Amino acid sequence: MHPVLIQYGVFKLPTYGVFVALGYLAGILWLQSRRQEMGLDETKFWRLIYVLFFGAIAGGKLMYWAVSYREIVSGRLSLFGDLRYGFVFFGGVLGAAALAWVAKWWLGFEFLSLADYFSAVLPLGHAVGRLGCLAAGCCYGRPTTLPWGVVLGGDPASSTPLELWGVPLHPTQIYESLANLLIWLFLAFALLPKVTSRRLRAGTVFFSYAILYGSARFVIEFFRYDDRGASLYPFSISQWISLAAIFLAAGLLMKRGVKAR
């Protein structure tokens, strides 16, 4: 792990932030190559990117505060701490989707049609961003005796608790990165072309993403030790959100159907 990529005097460049930025960049470049296919001109494209970015930041931070309220009330965490950290991925997705829903009247686009493109590339950016979690020592796994366990800690900037320094842990950051990479390959290269060719209905990629990522996250949470907040027996908060996403998306797919009419 390497929490700080570059340090010069008081200036510090966190590795986590660099990987998150690279994830955003990878997604934007992929979407830019399909801008005309999505029916967006240059101005509308960038306006939508900014809307999604701010929606993701706001949603991720709000859900972080919601699930970590006990730590905030006790004073262990700061409500307005370092804005580079303290985000929940599910909150970011919900925040971005909510602002996009509002922006569709402003920018004039069909929500589900564009949601298919953005949800197809979202796992790619997420796969890159999770490597930043590994570098920072956050989102760590449970102790393990498996040969691929990773040892974190040893750096004052590490997010891994001191009691876990030097202990082999499940590399849940890598688990999730690989899962996202596989989801991206399937959605972008197997499912999205069928939607763009009108063999499948608009929204199929979007709802499929919710099912696939929700399923992957539900399983990975069993190996994760950094659950970001209180749990509701018998699952973590993220697992309950994953189940809700899976059943809601599956229900909508069944109700709407996937084949174009």
Distance between the termini: 51 Å
How many strands appear in the DSSP assignment?
4
Shape: globular
Q: What is the total number of structural domains? A: 1
Determine Rg (CA atoms, Å).
Answer: 19 Å
Percentage of residues assigned to helices: 55-70%
| Number of helical segments with 4 or more residues | 9
SSE class: mainly alpha
- Tell me the major beta sheet: 2 strands, antiparallel
The portion of residues forming beta strands comes to under 5%
> Spans of 5+ residues with little confidence (pLDDT < 50)?
none
The order of strands across the largest sheet is 1-2
Mean pLDDT: 91
Give, in order, the helices and strands.
EEHHHHHHEEHHH
Features:
261 residues; mainly alpha; 4 strands; 62% helix
How would you describe what is shown here?
This protein is mainly alpha-helical. The protein has one domain (4-256). 62% of the residues lie in helices and 5% in strands. It has 9 helices and 4 strands. The strands form 2 sheets. The chain has a two-stranded antiparallel ribbon. Strands 3-4 form a two-stranded antiparallel ribbon. The longest helix is centred in the first third of the chain and has 26 residues, at 42-67. The termini are far apart. The mean pLDDT is 91.
